[in-house]
Each structure stands twice: as C-alpha cells, then as structure tokens.
Fold these 2 entries.
Entry 1:
Amino acid sequence: EAGVTQFPSHSVIEKGQTVTLRCDPISGHDNLYWYRRVMGKEIKFLLHFVKESKQDESGMPNNRFLAERTGGTYSTLKVQPAELEDSGVYFCASSPHTGANVLTFGAGSRLTVL
Amino acid sequence: EDQVTQSPEALRLQEGESSSLNCSYTVSGLRGLFWYRQDPGKGPEFLFTLYSAGEEKEKERLKATLTKKESFLHITAPKPEDSATYLCAVQAGDYKLSFGAGTTVTVRA
C-alpha cells in the first residue's frame, strides 16, 4: 500500500511569492489533514477534509492560506503571498474514516521563505 | 485549550540503558493519547494509542502507559536504532490531534 505522498519535499521562495503544496493521501482514505511545524514549536493542526468538504479549518492562520481537495482525492495548500513566519514543515495525514483516529503522515514539505 | 507537555526535551542514553519519557496532558474529553516516532526528514510514524487510565501497550523495546494526567513511554535496553524524536499527542472530541514538542532520544553504541 502506498503511503501519504507530499510534493515538493522542499521549497525555497521569496517573501511575497506564492507556493502550492500537494498531498496525495492513501487511496480510499476519506479523511485528509494538514498540520505544520514551525521552527522550535510543536506540530499544529491546520485543517481537516472529509472527502472534498472542509470539516474543520479552525487552525488555518489567516486568509493567505487556501486549501482545496477537488474530487475528494489529492489536496493542495496554497500560501499567497508568503511571509517569513510561514516557514516550517507542512505535514499531510490521512485516515480511512472519521472514526478511525490513527493518522498516517506524509514525510512533509519544508517551506523556507526568504 | 488542550495542552501537552513532554519531558525531557532531549535524552542521551547508552545502549542498554533503560529510561522513560513523560507526557503530561490537559484535555477536555480524551478520546485517545497517541505516541508517534519521528526520524529526521520523515513524518511522524504511529506507535501506540491509549484510551483509558491504566492501559498499557508494548511493542518491542517500547512500553506506553497512561494515567488520568500523564503518559509514560518506557524504553527498555535501547539500541542505536531507537534514536528518534518521540511525539505525544492527544485527541479530543473534535478529532484534532494536539501534539507536544517531542523528546529527542539519542542512543550511543
């Protein structure tokens, strides 16, 4: 079984530019989560999709962040325009259904904003 | 707001030297407490879920226990391959995971 795949593994951009991160969950997993870890801090929840619907986006820091999951398969997380404080590692995770509370995480996308 | 505090931040062990990691938590309506292992450049890898006080789970050299206020991850006779960051997380009624900052364990041969 393929795991959760994230792309790119590392992105370096200038402040003010746009970056799009992609996550391919495990096939058949309805639940998809985005988390991030900024330098020196713990991993924090960003949002939760159930299929293509946003179930909970209470962790999204501001309106510069936009997450989509068209068709209920892969998801993208766009940061526009990027700020210095957006630097960190963005993790995607998936689970087969909402009652299954064990998440499988991807390797993460490291974002560096200069 | 859910709070998870892990201690110590870092732990250096000699191979074979057993030790314990602590995870203290405050959560309203605990659904589960999770232990994950994270290696450099990789995502968290699931180890255990504990659901109620008194519960214990084991996997190879690792044993996790749970009380109403904290969880311990015991590492018995560690090997260098046990070197990693160990993350504790709690899940409340909304299914979000709240993570601690982690304990980085280094095991020297």
Entry 2:
Amino acid sequence: EAGVAQSPRYKIIEKRQSVAFWCNPISGHATLYWYQQILGQGPKLLIQFQNNGVVDDSQLPKDRFSAERLKGVDSTLKIQPAKLEDSAVYLCASSHGGLGELFFGEGSRLTVL
Amino acid sequence: KNQVEQSPQSLIILEGKNCTLQCNYTVSPFSNLRWYKQDTGRGPVSLTIMTFSENTKSNRRYTATLDADTKQSSLHITASQLSDSASYICVVSFESGPYGGSQGNLIFGKGTKLSVKP
C-alpha cells in the first residue's frame, strides 16, 4: 500500500515570497490533515478536510495560509506571503476518518530567509 | 486546559539498554492515547493506540502502558538498538468535541528525543 506522498521535500524562500506544498493521501482515505511542526515541538493542526470539505481550520492563519482539496483527493497548502516564523516542517496526514489511525507523509521542510 | 507533557525532553542511552519514556496528560474526556516514533527528517509513524480499557500494549520491543486513573502513560523500549534513535511523541485524543470526534481533537506532546549510542 502506497503511503502519503508529499512534495517538495525541501524549500528555501525569502520572506514575502509565496510557496505551495502538495499532498496525495493514501487511496481511499477520506480525511486529510495538514500539520505544522516547528523544530523541537509536536505537530500543530492547521486544517482538516473530510473529502473536499473543511472540517476544522480554526488554527489556520487565514491571512496568509490557504488550502484546498479538489475532488476530495490531492491537497495543496499555500503560504503567501511567507514570514520568518513560517519556517517549519509541513506534514500531511490521512486516515479513514473518525479517530482511526493517522498516517503521515515525510513532510515538506520550509526555510524562510 | 488540555495538555500533554512528556519527560524527559531528551535521553541518551547505550545500545542494548532499556529505557522508559513518560507521558502525563490532562485531556478530558479521554478517547485514546497514541505513541508515535519520528525519525529525523521523517514523518511520525504510529507505534501503539490505547483506549481507556487497555493497560498494556506491545509492539515488538516497544511496550506502552496506560493508567487512566492517574492520566499517565509510559513507553518502554527493551534492548535498544541504534535505529531506535528518534523522537517519541505522545498524542491524546478527545472523546468528543465540536467536530464530533475528528482528528482535530488530538493533543500532541512535544516529544522525547532519544539517542542510542554504540
């Protein structure tokens, strides 16, 4: 079974530039999540999708972050404009739904200079 | 306030030795507790998921315990190997919440960074 795929693995940008991350969840998983993990901390949920609908985006900085999940499969997370404090690993995860097991991708490491 | 605290923050042990990582939580109402292993530069991988009624759960050399009365969990690693070097994250979920049991009710600890030396 293929795992959660993310790209790019690494991205370096200057502040005020924009960046986009892509995620392809495990086939059949209706629920998709984006987490932000700052060095030395646990992951923090940014947004949760159920199919192509948003379930929870209460911690998403909506003035600069946006995410979409077209057709209920792949998802894209965008940051525009980036700030220094956005430097982190962005993890995508998926599950069958509810409180089932969560499967994480390898993450996209963002460095903002 | 719902919180998950892990200790120690970091730990260095010699290969072949055992170790125990601690997790204390104040999450309520409790649904389940999970331990994840996160290798450097990789995404977290699930080790165990424990519900209220489970006291012990093993996965190869990893044994997790749960005391729902004291709201404490531990992860015991037996006969450590170099490949055990990683961060171990404790995650506790709500029984219910504004999103009816969604993964948005997960509370992550900051993790314990384990280094196994030869």
